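User: Hand in any protein.

Assistant:
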Amino acid sequence: MSKKLKILVTGGAGFIGSHAVEKLLTLNYQVIIIDNFDDFYSPAIKHKNLENIIDHPNLQLIAHDVRDIHNIKALENINIHSIIHLAAIPGVRKSGIDPKQFININIESNNAVIAFAQSQNINKIIFASSSSVYGDHPSQPWHEELDNLHPLSPYARYKLECEHTGETFASTANNQFISLRFFSVYGPRMRPDLAMYRFAEKIANDQPIEVYGNGSSYRDYTYIDDIIAGIIASIHYDKHGFDIFNLAHGENIPLINMISALEKSLDKKARCKFLPKFEEESAGTWADIQKAKNTLSYHPKTDFASGIKAFCRWYKQTHLSNV
């Protein structure tokens, strides 16, 4: 790509954000990151996520809370093409413990991004939503036109509320709000609080892993490179208005199979401690991705076995180098 469109990425130092920024830079975009490096998990991890690109001439990093985006003078009148809004406090389980934090951060940050876009005449917002908005909807695989959604956690409810706010933004002529519902994203640099990472860490260190339920719950695991391909495709999608796309692999993998794949790649046996399932988590997620295929030319390329191998290879290189 010869033209240097300017893209603003909130939460650009995180797992998905840092991968998105790397890809955008390889495609010759100019990228601005806003990230406050909060302590939900170690800020040092987020700084490390950026270590290979931090000096790139087309990258600008602004360490700031996105909720205060309207006070960032460096962002005024600079002709931003699109906002990729990834900044959020994640976690289905944590949201049940402290729901007010999720209102204060997730909803307020989304509102701030939309207000900023309106003030700067930025017409396009790409929003990171979640498969959790579907709750336990019985019509699987889930497609974007399903109604009567009943999210099970505050985190999921707030994601859905952000979608509704985005739909209002997109009702103005020429505006576009694309909600990307991510399904169980995994891969190198994934957050340390996510189950796959925690399981890998426990298995590698011969510690028991906590399995909530009997292992039959399933997820539509999506490799990070495929998620990034969907995000990039959304930048080029130019239909005005509000749209939702599932970004997933389109396959349901039981939890016990994920554990087995980790055992194989780490060459160690897991010690499982089975506990009651969380009521705020879906028994299973499974996406219909036909809309993304047809509209965004989204075609996930990394199968689960290959993705697990890549994740474990990264984990061993970065965490077990002295073992």
About this structure: The first strand starts at residue 6 and ends at 10. The chain has a mean pLDDT of 93. The longest helix spans residues 99-119. The domain at 6-186+221-250+286-300 is CATH 3.40.50.720 (Rossmann fold).
